[in-house]
Specification:
The chain has about 120 residues and is of the alpha/beta class. The chain is built from 3 helices and 7 strands, in the order αββββαβαββ. The strands form 3 sheets. The chain has a 3-stranded parallel β-sheet.
Amino acid sequence: MNKLREALGDSAETPRFIETLARRGYRFVGKIESQAPAIRALAVLPLENLSHDPKQEFFAEGLTEALITTLAKIGALAPLGRELRARFARCSDLTVRNGPGHRAAGASQTGAAGAGGA
């Protein structure tokens, strides 16, 4: 523990990072600063139908909407609406002015084709 304190420039008498708890152990007391920016908006792009069966398109659309509904329940996160999603689906540059900081894309596959069957 002394080597760790030395490396951090810390001391047991006036701890900035590691505090000694008598007969219990140690506790980190340093301030933790997040380097990652908070995600406030998210563009969920329509999931791609990998089955290539037009009858299964509803499944991919339903999964997309279910994902958006679930993400909308997270208070600090605002998934974009359908019109704005369409705009970002065509845009490869995420630095569009007033755009979301992140986007999610994916695919769905149903039926025997995904299970290796005929």
